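ok so for the tutorial part 2 we go from a plain amino acid sequence to predicted structure tokens. step 1 is just haveing the sequence, like this:
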Amino acid sequence: MLKVGVFGVGHLGKFHLNNWKEIEGVKLVGFFDPHNETAQQVATDYDLKRFTDEEKLIDACDIIDIVVPTQEHYSLCMAAIRKGKHVFVEKPMAHTLQEAKDLVAMVQEAGIKLQVGHVERFNPAFVTIQKMQLNPMFIEVHRLAQFNPRGTEVSVILDLMIHDIDIILSIVKSSVKSISASGVAVLTDTPDIANVRIEFNNGCVANLTSSRISMKKMRKMRLFQKDSYIGVDFLNKKAEIIKIKQEDDVNVFAFDVDTPDGSKKTIAVANPVIEEGNAIKMELQSFYDAIINNTPTAVNEMDGYMAMEVAHQILGKIGNVTVLA
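step 2 — the prediction. this is what the tokens look like for a chain of 325 residues:
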């Protein structure tokens, strides 16, 4: 039985508490949260011990789950790693790139497991398309959200776009060649909307747009590769595939098109069945499994660092962000 302690039981932290309770082999021993009203309510609702000393909670656990503001990630991660505890930390893994680099070194030296909460890796729609052979040469992403003061301690790059940066780095097997970016601060002092172009050394190009001041929500990614187009709707958990029909393609809508050389090709359109799944529970379960089976975590410290490295390159390209008066 692995003992788990949760740091931060606000909006997202409560989701973590609910899902840890459903994972077999785990015992929630308590939580730490400095906000008295929230803490008292959680202690009552979950019948869970509130720790008022961070060190004592760390000492009482095998796993530390960090769901606090980004600025606090580093100190809590380091405190837990020094005590040999496994760490699940929400994205981004740290506030600065140097902090992330230090965490990577500490994790590897301590030999513990660390997983970063890039939850979209576990989105059922993305899990489904990963069963395909992915080799995109052009990627277009739109991630739009309505304004919420929660999370605005960091820019939209580190708040929203980092999800897509992580996913793109996981499927494009190439290093980054160049980045261009622009961003505007509208309601905060950091970019609230940004557009980014990432070029990879294998020729793949990714265009990303993220906004946290939209009137509607959207989380879509479109992948274009030889002989196929793949659309992923992370928000509605749907996927669409348009490709050259193969003999083994079944349950597809097919039609013929004329090609410039006068021949015909058969196009297949499919909407694969998306299995229902709770992405947060899936990521926490995968972390537990990695510890029990001594296997690599699904989103390890290097994945978290690489996503942050690209995000900070983007912020460097934006430079002195335009602030709308």
